[in-house]
């Protein structure tokens, strides 16, 4: 079961519709055009279009599986006293006093540029169910980080 926000769910549904209604028909048309050119054994366009069709069908199946197991979380029922999925957490790295702010998101919504980290990441795992003021140690590929939780905010 995959828990996610309504925004993440809607985004996955839109991507699936794009794949099914736009991308797949385009590649099927490309296969038909390439097939009309004759000998399929040496037809690069045909083989490239077939590979693209396989890639698109794989992505469609993956997104359908994710959506079948997705559960949208009602953020209004989440508390803001402990770190949970879909909470915004402000933390301080105690080694260099750098402050960071992350939103704990599902793996399908994680995007570091947007400040969203996966609930399955080492930092999120260490922060889960902790409270403001708690200090956690996180083992990351670069070593061990000592982080202090400064604020927890529920996202609307």
Q: What brief labels describe this structure?
A:
alpha/beta; 156 residues; 7 strands; two-stranded parallel ribbon
Task: Give the total of beta strands.
Answer: 7
Mean pLDDT: 89
| Low-confidence region ranges | none
Overall, the morphology is: elongated
Question: Could you describe the 3D structure shown?
Answer:
There is one protein chain. The chain has 156 residues and is an alpha/beta fold. Helices cover 40% and strands 27% of the residues. The strands form 2 sheets. The protein has a 5-stranded mixed beta sheet. The longest helix is centred in the N-terminal third of the chain and has 31 residues. It starts with a strand and ends with a strand.
Summarize the structure.
By secondary structure, this protein is of the alpha/beta class.
Which SSEs are present, and which pair or pack?
Blueprint: E1 2-4, H1 6-36, H2 44-68, E2 70-72, E3 87-93, E4 98-105, E5 116-118, H3 122-127, E6 135-140, E7 143-154
Parallel strand pairs: 1-2, 4-5
Antiparallel strand pairs: 3-4, 3-7, 6-7
Helix pairs in contact: 1-2
């Amino acid at each position: 079961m995959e828990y996610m926000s309504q925004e993440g769910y809607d985004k996955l549904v839109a991507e699936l519709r794009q794949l099914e209604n736009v991308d797949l028909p385009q590649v099927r048309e490309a296969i038909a055009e390439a097939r009309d050119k004759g000998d399929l054994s040496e037809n690069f366009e045909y083989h490239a279009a077939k590979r693209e069709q396989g890639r698109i069908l794989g992505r469609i199946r993956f997104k359908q599986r994710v959506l079948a197991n997705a559960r949208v979380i009602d953020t209004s029922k989440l508390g803001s006293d402990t770190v949970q999925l879909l909470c915004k957490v402000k933390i301080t790295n105690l080694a260099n006093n750098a402050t960071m702010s992350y939103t704990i998101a599902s793996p399908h919504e994680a995007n570091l540029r947007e400040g969203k980290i996966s609930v399955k990441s080492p930092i999120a795992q260490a922060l889960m169910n902790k409270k403001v003021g708690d200090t956690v140690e996180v083992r990351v590929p670069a070593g061990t980080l000592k982080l202090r939780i400064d604020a927890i905010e529920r996202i609307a």
